[in-house]
């Protein structure tokens, strides 16, 4: 099974930056897609960025221009760089991976099978 461990969360002031890392074991690029999700307090989980099996990257409109992702396919480390952070970015951030299907929406959590434990990001 794929195992995912997030790190790098913390507290930051508005306008600051944070870099989250996800270390993925038993993950194989080309067999899995991988994404970042977040869940603000009292709200639904939101897909914010993902890398598909063909290396294409999808970034949610809510964070486009501020967040970027990178995938090191050798070390299996999936990073989320967050810049110009806002209080509304406060959430628990999750790394997740899934298997491609004939049809899937890569920013939809329902298509993901494997999840990390989450890391808290607080912006004030």
SSE diagram, text form:
Layout: E1 3-7, E2 10-12, E3 18-25, E4 33-39, E5 46-51, E6 57-59, E7 67-72, E8 77-82, E9 91-98, E10 114-115, E11 119-123
Parallel strand pairs: 2-11
Antiparallel strand pairs: 1-3, 3-8, 4-5, 4-9, 5-6, 7-8, 9-10, 9-11
Characteristics of this structure?
mainly beta, four-stranded antiparallel beta sheet, 48% strand, 124 residues, seven-stranded mixed beta sheet
Please sum up the structure shown.
The protein has 124 residues and is mainly β.
Task: Describe the protein.
The chain is mainly β and 124 residues long. The chain has no helices and 11 strands. The strands form 2 sheets. Strands 2, 4, 5, 6, 9, 10 and 11 form a 7-stranded mixed β-sheet that branches.
- The proportion of residues forming helix, as a percent range, comes to under 10%
Structural class: mainly beta
Number of strands: 11
SSE run: EEEEEEEEEEE
- pLDDT < 50 stretches: none
Mean pLDDT: 95
The biggest sheet, with number of strands, parallel, antiparallel or mixed sense and barrel status, is:
7 strands, mixed
Instruction: Give the end-to-end Cα distance, rounded to a whole number of Å.
Output: 37 Å
Shape: globular
Query: What is the overall number of helices?
Result: 0
User: Into which percentage range does the β-strand content fall?
Assistant: over 45%
Rg value: 13 Å
